[in-house]
Amino acid sequence: MTLTKATAILLLLCGTGLAAQNREADSLRHAYGRQGVASSRIVGTPYADTLDTGNPAVKVILFNDGTYRYIKDPSFTAGDDIWTKNWNTWSCNPYGNVTIKETVTLWLVDTLDSYCCPRIGYHSSKFGYRHGRRHQGIDLPYPTGTPVYAAFDGKVRVSDVVGGYGNLVILRHANGLETFYGHLSQRNVEPGQWVSAGDVIGLGGSTGRSSGPHLHFETRYMGNAFDPAWLIDFQTGKLRHRMIKLRPWYFDGGSNYVQAVDDEDEIFRTDEEERLLAEERARKEAEARAAAERAAMQYYTVKSGDTLSSIARKYGTTVQALCRMNNIKATSTIQIGQRLRVK
Ligand SMILES: [Zn+2]
Protein backbone atom coordinates (compact mmCIF):
# COMPACT_ATOMS: atom_id res chain seq x y z
CA MET A 1 0.00 0.00 0.00
CA THR A 2 1.31 3.46 -0.82
CA LEU A 3 1.97 6.08 1.79
CA THR A 4 -0.74 8.28 0.31
CA LYS A 5 -3.25 5.50 0.65
CA ALA A 6 -2.17 4.85 4.21
CA THR A 7 -2.51 8.54 4.87
CA ALA A 8 -5.99 8.47 3.44
CA ILE A 9 -7.18 5.72 5.73
CA LEU A 10 -6.08 7.70 8.76
CA LEU A 11 -9.15 9.79 8.19
CA LEU A 12 -11.50 9.21 10.94
CA LEU A 13 -14.88 10.10 11.58
CA CYS A 14 -17.76 8.59 13.17
CA GLY A 15 -20.86 9.27 11.24
CA THR A 16 -23.17 9.35 14.21
CA GLY A 17 -25.87 12.02 14.29
CA LEU A 18 -26.07 14.68 16.97
CA ALA A 19 -28.77 12.94 18.99
CA ALA A 20 -26.73 9.77 19.05
CA GLN A 21 -23.64 11.75 20.02
CA ASN A 22 -25.50 13.29 22.94
CA ARG A 23 -26.60 9.84 24.12
CA GLU A 24 -23.05 8.61 23.89
CA ALA A 25 -21.83 11.70 25.68
CA ASP A 26 -24.15 11.07 28.60
CA SER A 27 -22.95 7.54 29.18
CA LEU A 28 -19.25 8.01 28.45
CA ARG A 29 -18.40 11.52 29.49
CA HIS A 30 -17.08 10.70 32.95
CA ALA A 31 -15.03 7.77 31.74
CA TYR A 32 -13.53 9.40 28.68
CA GLY A 33 -14.70 12.97 28.25
CA ARG A 34 -12.40 14.40 30.90
CA GLN A 35 -9.21 13.03 29.44
CA GLY A 36 -6.93 15.46 27.67
CA VAL A 37 -5.27 14.39 24.46
CA ALA A 38 -1.67 15.15 23.56
CA SER A 39 -0.96 16.51 20.13
CA SER A 40 0.40 13.80 17.88
CA ARG A 41 1.28 13.49 14.25
CA ILE A 42 1.51 10.01 12.84
CA VAL A 43 0.94 11.08 9.26
CA GLY A 44 4.14 10.66 7.31
CA THR A 45 5.76 8.47 9.98
CA PRO A 46 7.50 5.52 8.26
CA TYR A 47 5.61 2.28 8.79
CA ALA A 48 6.07 -1.34 7.83
CA ASP A 49 2.60 -2.57 6.97
CA THR A 50 -1.14 -2.15 7.43
CA LEU A 51 -3.39 -4.98 8.61
CA ASP A 52 -7.12 -5.56 8.33
CA THR A 53 -9.19 -5.95 11.46
CA GLY A 54 -12.63 -7.56 11.90
CA ASN A 55 -14.11 -4.09 11.48
CA PRO A 56 -13.85 -2.93 7.85
CA ALA A 57 -13.73 0.73 9.03
CA VAL A 58 -10.67 0.11 11.20
CA LYS A 59 -7.16 -0.92 10.21
CA VAL A 60 -3.90 -1.43 12.07
CA ILE A 61 -0.65 0.29 11.06
CA LEU A 62 2.55 -1.50 12.01
CA PHE A 63 5.48 0.86 12.49
CA ASN A 64 9.11 -0.03 11.78
CA ASP A 65 9.94 0.04 15.48
CA GLY A 66 7.40 -2.72 16.19
CA THR A 67 4.71 -0.45 17.60
CA TYR A 68 1.23 -0.35 16.08
CA ARG A 69 -1.77 1.87 15.99
CA TYR A 70 -5.44 1.59 15.05
CA ILE A 71 -6.68 3.92 12.33
CA LYS A 72 -10.01 4.55 10.65
CA ASP A 73 -11.14 4.51 7.05
CA PRO A 74 -12.95 7.77 6.26
CA SER A 75 -14.82 6.39 3.30
CA PHE A 76 -17.25 4.76 5.74
CA THR A 77 -18.74 8.15 6.60
CA ALA A 78 -18.51 9.65 3.13
CA GLY A 79 -22.28 9.36 2.61
CA ASP A 80 -23.16 11.27 5.78
CA ASP A 81 -25.14 14.52 5.58
CA ILE A 82 -22.39 16.37 7.42
CA TRP A 83 -20.31 16.37 4.21
CA THR A 84 -23.08 17.66 1.95
CA LYS A 85 -25.62 19.64 4.00
CA ASN A 86 -24.87 23.39 4.38
CA TRP A 87 -21.81 22.73 2.30
CA ASN A 88 -20.15 24.98 -0.25
CA THR A 89 -16.57 25.65 -1.26
CA TRP A 90 -16.53 29.45 -1.11
CA SER A 91 -18.27 30.83 1.95
CA CYS A 92 -17.00 31.19 5.53
CA ASN A 93 -20.51 30.54 6.79
CA PRO A 94 -22.73 28.29 4.66
CA TYR A 95 -25.26 27.90 7.51
CA GLY A 96 -26.92 31.33 7.32
CA ASN A 97 -27.70 33.10 10.55
CA VAL A 98 -27.97 30.27 13.04
CA THR A 99 -28.12 31.23 16.72
CA ILE A 100 -26.99 28.54 19.14
CA LYS A 101 -29.60 28.59 21.92
CA GLU A 102 -28.86 25.29 23.61
CA THR A 103 -25.72 23.57 24.81
CA VAL A 104 -24.19 21.33 22.16
CA THR A 105 -22.15 18.28 23.12
CA LEU A 106 -19.35 17.37 20.74
CA TRP A 107 -16.92 14.50 20.90
CA LEU A 108 -13.69 15.93 19.55
CA VAL A 109 -11.74 12.71 19.21
CA ASP A 110 -12.45 9.08 19.92
CA THR A 111 -10.07 6.64 21.59
CA LEU A 112 -8.03 6.51 18.39
CA ASP A 113 -6.73 10.00 19.23
CA SER A 114 -6.74 11.90 15.99
CA TYR A 115 -5.60 15.33 17.08
CA CYS A 116 -2.69 17.59 16.22
CA CYS A 117 -2.14 21.02 17.73
CA PRO A 118 -1.82 23.65 14.97
CA ARG A 119 0.88 25.46 16.97
CA ILE A 120 2.18 24.78 20.47
CA GLY A 121 3.20 27.77 22.54
CA TYR A 122 2.34 31.38 23.07
CA HIS A 123 -0.54 32.94 21.17
CA SER A 124 -0.25 36.60 20.36
CA SER A 125 -3.82 37.75 19.89
CA LYS A 126 -6.90 36.52 21.65
CA PHE A 127 -10.43 35.75 20.60
CA GLY A 128 -12.78 38.67 21.27
CA TYR A 129 -12.87 42.37 20.45
CA ARG A 130 -9.72 44.06 19.19
CA HIS A 131 -9.59 47.75 18.28
CA GLY A 132 -13.41 47.70 18.27
CA ARG A 133 -13.51 44.95 15.67
CA ARG A 134 -14.51 41.39 16.40
CA HIS A 135 -11.60 38.95 16.24
CA GLN A 136 -13.17 35.56 15.63
CA GLY A 137 -10.13 33.41 16.23
CA ILE A 138 -6.69 33.51 17.75
CA ASP A 139 -3.37 34.40 16.18
CA LEU A 140 -0.46 32.03 16.50
CA PRO A 141 3.04 33.26 15.59
CA TYR A 142 3.98 31.30 12.51
CA PRO A 143 7.11 31.83 10.43
CA THR A 144 6.43 31.98 6.70
CA GLY A 145 6.92 28.58 5.10
CA THR A 146 6.36 26.58 8.32
CA PRO A 147 3.96 23.61 7.83
CA VAL A 148 0.40 24.15 9.08
CA TYR A 149 -1.25 20.96 10.36
CA ALA A 150 -4.90 19.93 10.29
CA ALA A 151 -6.14 19.86 13.90
CA PHE A 152 -8.57 16.99 13.40
CA ASP A 153 -9.55 14.53 10.71
CA GLY A 154 -12.05 15.91 8.25
CA LYS A 155 -12.73 17.19 4.76
CA VAL A 156 -11.55 20.38 3.08
CA ARG A 157 -14.54 22.66 2.47
CA VAL A 158 -12.76 25.86 1.37
CA SER A 159 -9.27 26.42 -0.01
CA ASP A 160 -9.20 29.88 -1.53
CA VAL A 161 -8.15 33.52 -1.20
CA VAL A 162 -10.84 35.06 1.02
CA GLY A 163 -10.73 38.81 1.84
CA GLY A 164 -8.80 39.68 5.00
CA TYR A 165 -7.98 36.00 5.59
CA GLY A 166 -5.72 35.92 2.52
CA ASN A 167 -5.05 32.27 1.69
CA LEU A 168 -7.63 30.42 3.75
CA VAL A 169 -8.31 26.73 4.35
CA ILE A 170 -11.51 25.69 6.09
CA LEU A 171 -11.86 22.09 7.27
CA ARG A 172 -15.11 20.49 8.32
CA HIS A 173 -14.99 17.69 10.88
CA ALA A 174 -17.48 14.85 11.36
CA ASN A 175 -18.86 16.32 14.60
CA GLY A 176 -19.89 19.48 12.72
CA LEU A 177 -16.99 21.58 13.95
CA GLU A 178 -15.14 23.70 11.40
CA THR A 179 -11.55 24.91 11.75
CA PHE A 180 -10.12 27.90 9.82
CA TYR A 181 -6.47 28.47 8.90
CA GLY A 182 -5.81 31.98 7.55
CA HIS A 183 -2.96 34.12 6.14
CA LEU A 184 -1.21 31.06 4.61
CA SER A 185 1.62 31.63 2.14
CA GLN A 186 0.65 28.40 0.38
CA ARG A 187 -2.41 26.12 0.32
CA ASN A 188 -1.68 22.41 -0.14
CA VAL A 189 -5.22 21.03 -0.29
CA GLU A 190 -8.29 21.25 -2.53
CA PRO A 191 -11.98 21.40 -1.57
CA GLY A 192 -13.46 17.93 -1.16
CA GLN A 193 -10.16 16.38 -0.13
CA TRP A 194 -10.13 14.18 2.99
CA VAL A 195 -7.48 15.09 5.55
CA SER A 196 -6.15 13.50 8.72
CA ALA A 197 -5.14 15.30 11.88
CA GLY A 198 -1.52 16.24 11.33
CA ASP A 199 -1.70 16.47 7.54
CA VAL A 200 0.13 19.51 6.19
CA ILE A 201 -2.66 21.62 4.68
CA GLY A 202 -0.49 24.62 3.82
CA LEU A 203 2.39 26.83 4.91
CA GLY A 204 2.39 29.75 7.33
CA GLY A 205 2.47 33.26 5.88
CA SER A 206 1.14 36.79 6.01
CA THR A 207 -1.38 37.05 3.17
CA GLY A 208 -4.57 39.11 3.52
CA ARG A 209 -5.00 41.65 6.32
CA SER A 210 -1.98 40.73 8.38
CA SER A 211 0.78 42.70 10.04
CA GLY A 212 3.34 39.87 9.97
CA PRO A 213 3.62 36.12 9.58
CA HIS A 214 1.07 34.37 11.77
CA LEU A 215 -1.63 31.75 11.61
CA HIS A 216 -5.16 32.95 12.22
CA PHE A 217 -6.95 29.92 13.71
CA GLU A 218 -10.71 29.79 14.19
CA THR A 219 -13.13 27.22 15.52
CA ARG A 220 -16.77 27.45 14.48
CA TYR A 221 -19.95 25.51 14.97
CA MET A 222 -22.89 26.11 12.61
CA GLY A 223 -21.13 29.24 11.39
CA ASN A 224 -20.66 30.60 14.93
CA ALA A 225 -17.11 31.24 16.13
CA PHE A 226 -16.03 30.48 19.70
CA ASP A 227 -12.70 30.81 21.50
CA PRO A 228 -10.44 27.92 20.32
CA ALA A 229 -8.92 27.99 23.80
CA TRP A 230 -12.02 26.09 24.98
CA LEU A 231 -10.67 23.16 22.99
CA ILE A 232 -6.93 23.55 23.09
CA ASP A 233 -4.44 24.60 25.72
CA PHE A 234 -2.03 26.33 23.36
CA GLN A 235 0.71 26.48 26.00
CA THR A 236 1.01 22.68 26.12
CA GLY A 237 -0.61 21.89 22.79
CA LYS A 238 -3.01 19.49 24.53
CA LEU A 239 -6.65 19.07 23.66
CA ARG A 240 -8.25 19.87 27.02
CA HIS A 241 -10.90 17.13 26.84
CA ARG A 242 -12.10 14.47 24.46
CA MET A 243 -15.53 15.98 24.67
CA ILE A 244 -16.78 19.53 24.88
CA LYS A 245 -20.09 21.07 25.79
CA LEU A 246 -20.47 24.28 23.83
CA ARG A 247 -22.60 26.60 25.98
CA PRO A 248 -24.58 29.24 24.08
CA TRP A 249 -22.59 32.05 25.76
CA TYR A 250 -19.32 30.74 24.29
CA PHE A 251 -20.55 32.19 20.99
CA ASP A 252 -20.83 35.76 22.29
CA GLY A 253 -18.30 37.93 20.47
CA GLY A 254 -16.33 38.95 23.53
CA SER A 255 -16.43 35.74 25.54
CA ASN A 256 -13.09 34.10 26.27
CA TYR A 257 -12.15 30.74 27.66
CA VAL A 258 -12.66 30.71 31.43
CA GLN A 259 -10.45 28.36 33.39
CA ALA A 260 -12.80 28.34 36.39
CA VAL A 261 -15.72 27.00 34.39
CA ASP A 262 -13.57 24.24 33.03
CA ASP A 263 -12.25 23.37 36.50
CA GLU A 264 -15.62 23.07 38.13
CA ASP A 265 -16.70 20.02 36.21
CA GLU A 266 -19.37 22.20 34.68
CA ILE A 267 -18.46 21.02 31.24
CA PHE A 268 -19.38 17.44 32.07
CA ARG A 269 -22.70 17.95 33.77
CA THR A 270 -25.75 16.42 32.16
CA ASP A 271 -28.98 18.41 31.87
CA GLU A 272 -30.41 16.24 34.66
CA GLU A 273 -27.47 17.07 36.95
CA GLU A 274 -27.89 20.77 36.11
CA ARG A 275 -31.60 20.52 37.05
CA LEU A 276 -30.83 18.79 40.38
CA LEU A 277 -28.18 21.41 41.19
CA ALA A 278 -30.65 24.21 40.42
CA GLU A 279 -33.23 22.55 42.72
CA GLU A 280 -30.66 22.22 45.49
CA ARG A 281 -29.69 25.89 45.09
CA ALA A 282 -33.37 26.96 45.23
CA ARG A 283 -33.94 24.81 48.37
CA LYS A 284 -30.91 26.36 50.12
CA GLU A 285 -32.02 29.86 49.17
CA ALA A 286 -35.52 29.21 50.58
CA GLU A 287 -33.96 27.86 53.80
CA ALA A 288 -31.75 30.93 54.11
CA ARG A 289 -34.73 33.22 53.58
CA ALA A 290 -36.73 31.41 56.29
CA ALA A 291 -33.76 31.61 58.69
CA ALA A 292 -33.40 35.33 58.04
CA GLU A 293 -37.10 35.77 58.71
CA ARG A 294 -36.83 33.82 61.97
CA ALA A 295 -33.85 35.93 63.01
CA ALA A 296 -35.86 39.09 62.38
CA MET A 297 -38.76 37.96 64.61
CA GLN A 298 -39.36 39.93 67.80
CA TYR A 299 -41.42 39.08 70.87
CA TYR A 300 -42.96 41.18 73.61
CA THR A 301 -44.13 40.13 77.03
CA VAL A 302 -47.50 41.63 77.94
CA LYS A 303 -47.47 43.94 80.94
CA SER A 304 -50.20 45.41 83.07
CA GLY A 305 -52.30 47.98 81.17
CA ASP A 306 -51.27 46.77 77.65
CA THR A 307 -53.87 46.36 74.93
CA LEU A 308 -53.43 44.90 71.44
CA SER A 309 -53.66 48.38 69.97
CA SER A 310 -51.12 49.91 72.38
CA ILE A 311 -48.67 47.10 71.60
CA ALA A 312 -49.32 47.52 67.87
CA ARG A 313 -48.64 51.26 68.13
CA LYS A 314 -45.45 50.67 70.09
CA TYR A 315 -44.04 48.36 67.39
CA GLY A 316 -45.34 50.31 64.40
CA THR A 317 -47.71 47.53 63.34
CA THR A 318 -51.47 46.93 63.32
CA VAL A 319 -53.83 44.90 65.47
CA GLN A 320 -54.68 42.76 62.40
CA ALA A 321 -50.97 42.01 61.86
CA LEU A 322 -50.50 41.08 65.55
CA CYS A 323 -53.53 38.79 65.37
CA ARG A 324 -52.22 37.12 62.22
CA MET A 325 -48.71 36.58 63.64
CA ASN A 326 -50.04 35.15 66.92
CA ASN A 327 -53.06 33.35 65.56
CA ILE A 328 -55.48 35.20 67.85
CA LYS A 329 -58.62 37.29 67.36
CA ALA A 330 -58.83 41.07 67.87
CA THR A 331 -61.41 40.34 70.56
CA SER A 332 -59.17 37.87 72.42
CA THR A 333 -58.15 38.80 75.96
CA ILE A 334 -54.42 39.05 76.47
CA GLN A 335 -52.83 38.07 79.78
CA ILE A 336 -50.03 39.70 81.72
CA GLY A 337 -46.83 37.66 81.07
CA GLN A 338 -48.11 36.36 77.70
CA ARG A 339 -45.50 36.31 74.92
CA LEU A 340 -46.65 37.92 71.68
CA ARG A 341 -44.82 38.00 68.43
CA VAL A 342 -44.63 41.64 67.30
CA LYS A 343 -42.40 41.39 64.18
ZN1 LIG B 1 -6.35 36.73 13.60
Query: Order of SSEs, N→C?
Result: HHEEEEEEEEEEEEEEEEEEEHHEHHE
Number of helices: 6
Strand residues, percent: 25-35%
Unreliable sequence segments: 1-16
How many strands?
21
What shape does the CA trace take?
elongated
Amino-to-carboxy terminus distance: 87 Å
Q: Give a quick account of the main beta sheet: strands, pairing sense, barrel closure.
A: 7 strands, antiparallel
Helix amount: 10-25%
**Unique bound compounds:** zinc ion
| Mean pLDDT over the full residue set | 84
Rounded to an integer in angstroms, the radius of gyration calculated over CA atoms is: 31 Å
Structural classification: alpha+beta
Topology:
Blueprint: H1 3-9, H2 18-33, E1 47-52, E2 58-63, E3 68-72, E4 104-107, E5 128-130, E6 133-135, E7 138-141, E8 147-149, E9 154-161, E10 167-172, E11 177-184, E12 186-187, E13 194-195, E14 200-203, E15 214-221, E16 224-226, E17 232-233, E18 238-239, E19 243-246, H3 259-263, H4 271-296, E20 299-301, H5 308-314, H6 319-326, E21 339-341
Antiparallel strand pairs: 1-2, 2-3, 4-19, 5-6, 7-15, 8-14, 9-10, 9-13, 10-11, 11-15, 12-14, 15-16, 17-18, 20-21
This protein binds zinc ion.
Zinc ion binds next to loops.
